[in-house]
Automatic annotation (TrEMBL):
This is tRNA pseudouridine synthase B. Residues 26-174 form the Pseudouridine synthase II N-terminal domain. It comes from Candidatus Caccopulliclostridium gallistercoris. SUPFAM superfamilies: Pseudouridine synthase. Transmembrane segments: none annotated. Keywords: Isomerase, tRNA processing. It comes from the Bacteria. GO terms for biological process: mRNA pseudouridine synthesis; tRNA pseudouridine synthesis. The lineage of its organism: Bacteria, Bacillati, Bacillota, Clostridia, Candidatus Caccopulliclostridium. Gene3D superfamilies: Pseudouridine synthase. It catalyses: uridine(55) in tRNA = pseudouridine(55) in tRNA. InterPro entries: PsdUridine_synth_cat_dom_sf, PsdUridine_synth_N, tRNA_psdUridine_synth_TruB. Belongs to the pseudouridine synthase TruB family. Type 1 subfamily.
């Protein structure tokens, strides 16, 4: 049984909830207690910081850390969940150019009010918004102040599909960024992929897959290393 109070940087696979990822890590490592430090959408992959044993008390430290993502923005189609998991609710035939997108991305740098996606883990009277939406109930969310530090267009993948690097504050929804960027471009949009590449100082280059854990090929970060001033 693992008794060390430590943090694991997991490279969470796609199509897996953060809850299930934590459950598997806890079982594989034999930890007495485990918890993630900020959820990652089931369809997203990448950095999921997991506290083991007493390291779970570092929850606020990582939950409030800045984040970095690489996402594929797809314009001309929108789903109710703003990703590939939802039902198509809108299409548009506008073709977005690289130059046009670059110019609009610049306008999103800085502090702003962001409306979370309806399909999110935000709670309304103790119930998750996404669960209410799936039940067909009305979901009314309030905007929240977030900050976007940088939006960098990495490459055009195909017509209306672009890879974008995002540096932002905690609490920022990538799916909401795509929605809002599309609106400013006078079209609609959604994300086709989201990879979290950094959470605070912890990055994907130093993360481990579930296969690594099962093979014993991993290194934990002791709680004392993360609590040093």
């Amino acid at each position: 049984m693992l008794t060390q109070d430590a943090v694991l940087v997991l490279n969470k696979p796609k199509n897996m909830s953060s809850f299930l990822a934590v459950k598997l890590v806890k079982k594989i490592l034999g930890a007495g207690k485990a918890g993630h430090m900020g959820t990652l959408d089931p369809l997203a992959d990448g950095v999921l910081v997991i506290g083991l044993n007493k390291a779970t008390k570092l929850f606020d430290k990582f939950l409030n850390s800045d984040k970095e993502y690489i996402s594929i923005f797809k314009f001309g189609v929108e789903t109710d969940s703003l990703d590939l998991d939802g039902e198509i609710i809108r299409t548009d035939n506008k073709v977005v150019s690289e130059e046009e997108l670059k110019n609009v991305l610049k306008t999103f740098i800085g502090k702003q009010q962001q409306l979370p996606p309806v399909y999110s883990a935000k709670k309304i009277n103790g119930k998750r918004a996404c669960d209410m939406a799936r039940e067909g109930k009305e979901v009314v969310l309030q905007p929240k102040e977030i900050e976007i530090y940088n939006l960098e267009l990495l490459e055009k993948l195909e017509e209306n599909a672009f890879k974008v690097k995002i540096s932002c504050s905690s609490g920022t929804y990538v799916r909401a960024i795509v929605r809002d960027v599309a609106e400013r471009l006078s079209t609609c949009g959604m994300t086709h992929a989201i990879t979290r590449t950094k959470c605070g100082v912890l990055c994907i280059e130093n993360s481990y897959t579930l296969e690594d854990l099962r093979a014993g090929n991993y290194k934990l970060i002791d709680i004392n290393e993360l609590t040093k001033e």
